[in-house]
Amino acid sequence: MDFTKTENMNIEEVREYCLTLPYVTEDEFCPEVITFRIEGKWFLMMWLEAPEPRVAVKCDPVLAIELRERYHGVEPAYHMNKKMWNDLYLERDLDEEEIRKWIRHSYEEVAKKLPKMVQTRTLSTTLDSFIQNLLKSLLARQVTGLSSMLHLSQSIY
Known about the structure:
Elements: H1 11-20, E1 24-30, E2 33-38, E3 41-47, E4 54-58, H2 61-70, E5 74-76, E6 85-89, H3 96-111, H4 116-156
Antiparallel strand pairs: 1-2, 2-3, 3-4, 4-6, 5-6
């Protein structure tokens, strides 16, 4: 079985992605661990000194088990509630899209347990942020495509 992947996501990219989510704060839990929180509640833990880069994310308990069975890069999270927390190993068989998906899932799992008033503010901002990021991504792809076409047309003449 081949556990390699083509698009790696490193620790810094995970950090940058987490900080794009609304109302997220970052803090040092201890010298080796950085946590990311929404309204003071953890949704991601990042081990800085791990021999193999990994992050812990909260997960629906049923999905947590399914992910462990499906991916070599998903294991029960070290020092966390194994029922709901998974370690995602960044250099195994999870591509960037999957890692982002499970970080987002973790964020939403925590957000949905916040008080209703906070949820409404957080989730509506999350949707707005998602739409803005999607539009930025689409625009960037169009600009890149147009730039390539312009370069090609200039080389023809």
